[in-house]
Each structure stands twice: as C-alpha cells, then as structure tokens.
Design goal:
about 525 residues, alpha/beta, 2-enoyl-CoA Hydratase, Chain A, domain 1, OB fold (Dihydrolipoamide Acetyltransferase, E2P), eight-stranded mixed beta sheet, 18 strands, disordered N terminus
Amino acid sequence: MYTASPQTQRSYIIQKIIALCLIGLLPCFYHIASGADSSTSTDSKTTPGLLSSEFNPDNLGVVGVAHVTGVINRTNRRYFERAVQQAREKELDTLIVHIDTDGGEVFEAREMLRLALDQAKDGPKLIAFVDYRAISAGAMIAYGHDAIFINETASIGDIGVIFISREGEMKYAPEKVETVVRTLLTQASETRGWSKGLLLKMTARNQTLYRVTHKDGQQEYIIEDDFPGYLAAHPEIDRNDNAQVIDFRGKDRLLTFTGKEAVELGMATGFAETLDDLYDTLGINKDEVIDLTPTPIEQLASQLALFAPMLAGLALLFLIFELKTPGVGLWAGIAAILGALFLLSQYVLDLANHFELILLILGVVLVAIEAMTFIAGGILALVGLFAIFAGLVMMFLPNEFDFDFTDPRFVDALSSAGISAAMSVAIMAIGIVFFIYKLPKSRLASRLAVNEEITATSDTASSGESRYLVGQVGVAIDHLRPAGMIEIDGRAHNATAEHAAFIDKGSSVRVIDVKFGELLVRSETNTVIGINK
C-alpha cells in the first residue's frame, strides 16, 4: 500500500480548495473584464423636454430606440436606466421607447416614471410607441414621455395598484400607496402636459371623473378631489347643468383607452402601427437610428434570473459530489457552469457584489476543509453552511435597499430573498436524497461515494447504526483519495481516509470512527487483498 506523505496530503487539499475558489471567481473575472457599471451618468445636454402639446416632429435630431417589453420588473427598470444613460452619453436628441407590457411591479414602474420625468430638465426628448398594450405600469411609464404614438387598436391605461398575497389573493392597494402613484401622475401631467383628470382616473378607482364643457366648447376633465376647488375658480360653471357638467366616469372604474380614443382625448399624440410607420411619420431615416436594444448578456441574464434558485442549488449539489470524489473532474465542471450562469445573472442584474461572492466562496471552502479532514468535528461545516446561506440571501436581495427593518419594502425583499435561498438549499438536499436512493448500487453511486448516511449531521440514528463497525477491518474497493468505498463482511460502506491519506484499492483498512454518518478509516497493512469486483 502507498500512503501519501503529509506534504502530498496538504498539497492535495490545497489544490482542491484553490480549484473551488477559481470556479467561484470565474463570473467575477467576467464582470471585471466586461467593465460593467450600473452608475447613472451625470453628463447632461441643453435640449429640454417638451410638453406633448408643443411636440415638434421637425426637431428630433439624433434618434435612438429602446424596448421595454414584458413584465415591468427590476430587469426592465435596470435596462431602461441603461438605455437612458447611453442616450445621454451619446448625446442623442430623441429616444424612442417601444412599450409593450401588461404591467408589473409598482416600485419599479415608479422609478422608471421618475427617470423619464427627469429627462425633461436636460435629457433627450422621449417618445413612447405602443403597438399593442401599455397597461397599468406600462401606461404609467408611457405618460412620463413627451409624446405617445399608438396603434389604433392598442390599449393604454388602467393604472390600478394591486397587491397579491402569498395565497394569490388580489386586493387594491391602500390609499397611502395609491396617493404616491397619483402624485407621480400629477407630476407627469405638469411636466409633460397630459390631462391631469384623465391621468388620475386611471388609478383613482374610488373617485368620480367629471367632464366640464365651457361656453366656447372647450372641455376639461376634473377628478373628484379637485372639483370643489375648480368650481370655486370658475363660478360660471353650474354643477347642476348637464350641458356643462357630466359624470364622465363613476366610482369603482379605472380608465383604459383604445389607441383611437387616446388620440381623440389628447392622451396620445398620434397613430403608428409599427416602428417603421413611426419613423416615416416623424421623417426619421431608419438606417440612422441608434439601436439601444437589450444586449444578449442582458437578455440571457433576464431569462436566467427566472431559474436562479435552481442554478444555485444544483451548483452546490455538484460541488458536494466533487468533494466526495477524488480529483477535480466532471462534477466540478458542471458546478462551474451552473455557478457561472447563476452569478452572471446576479451580477448583470446588480443583485450580487464582490462581498456576497467572497462570502459564498468562503462558505464552500470551509465545508470543503471539513469534508476532507474532519478537523473541527463539524463546526467548520456548520459555519460554512451558514456563510453559504447568508451569501445566497444577499445575492437575491437587491442592492438598492438599506438594512432598514422599518421599511416594509426591505422586509418584503428580504423575505423573498430568504425564500429563494431556502429553495436553493432545498434543491441541493433533494438532489442528494434522489441520487442516494435512485442509484445506490450503480457505478455512479460508487464514484460519488455518497449514501443515505450523508444526511446525518450529528450522532443520530444513521451514525449510531454504523458505530458497531468501529474497530472492524475491511477492504478498500475504491482508491481512497481520500473518499471512496470500502467493503466489510460483503457490505459496501462510504468511507474517508484519516488525515486525507491516499489508500490504494484492495488495501486493508480499519474503521476508527464515524463522522457525520461516514466511516473514518486508516490503512491497516501494506497487503493487497483480492476482492471479487
């Protein structure tokens, strides 16, 4: 039998840990090399935003196009920020934003509306193009633009703020939340020139909208909250004269327009069926438009984000497989790919920073050291698992939140991050159990050197049932480097060599302890015993 020297054993452990660290750092290297930067540019131009009533299609200058489609979420918000930032950096005069969405998260929509309104000061003109729908959060964002061009059959409006419980029950948001949205829509009206009454009725479900017709035929739309003040400022208006005042929309209704209705009521600037039609209408040379479409990396990250907990859980699962087998091979490669995809999505979406990555790698290293040496009797493994879970929670938690437990948005985000991290851990645990019970007698199971006892984390029944093996002599049916399988009385057992020693296949070994449901063995003789394999 050959027993590795202490130097060789230490070298093996060091190589293993270095390999695991490099696996985890691959996405970090990509992030640094790509020069990703989520900061907002402070560069400015002197071209002011125009009110929609003053929209001038003859002064569009250099034009770019961006696309906000699908669910309004953090991914879309970050993309919109990036598109506006690039438009400013490239000193574009006009940015056309194609909007096609049924809505999404109110917080992200609010931030996107604020950003759009900020461009009225010194940013590019913003033109929204709606070819199909801009509902709820989509309408909210659209009305932050200077102008809106819409397909006649498209829909826009219904900015109802709805909360969905964990049980799937939908309820309208309380007045406190709705007031914030109404304030932003009021700002959109004041900044971009859209009708305040019509805008507010898109979200003020419990208020009546009045249409007032003046003697000269001019019509105005006034929301219930503003109506008393409006009548005081216009004593010529008779509230009881139906020729002057009618209830345009009653309570418990939200405004939604077709494209044709929106243009007729001044809630859209004009018609366009496609982007090409819009270019023709505005006299824009299509070939000169600067495309700010989401990059392939952004698109990939957006799709990967849907599977992030699964990717993280499977990466950890295969790392455990790697720790229980000799060398850095197949499982390390699979773990590296899955881990890289997970971290790529989190970095691009600005969910992960270097600290979270370091915490996650530290946890993996601690678990690896404990798994190969049992140096701390399981303490390092517990600390490592805690670090892994904490790192995952922070990777699922958006970076823009401060640790403020009085902020309900932070509490909700932390809760969601904890659930995602728990899903990752659950996927890892389920994967271990599946492979243990599905392939217990296969060559793959032998290579993994994992059995049902790996689930024990203390002197539980699993380890207790193996206690009787302490002191017995068996035969290595795998090369223990340091983990593998041994045979005692015709029965295979999972084992790890003491001090991470290398023990050749066929060597005699003695069981000296049971650690976490796994036999700890040392070389007994230099004799190779024949086995039927």
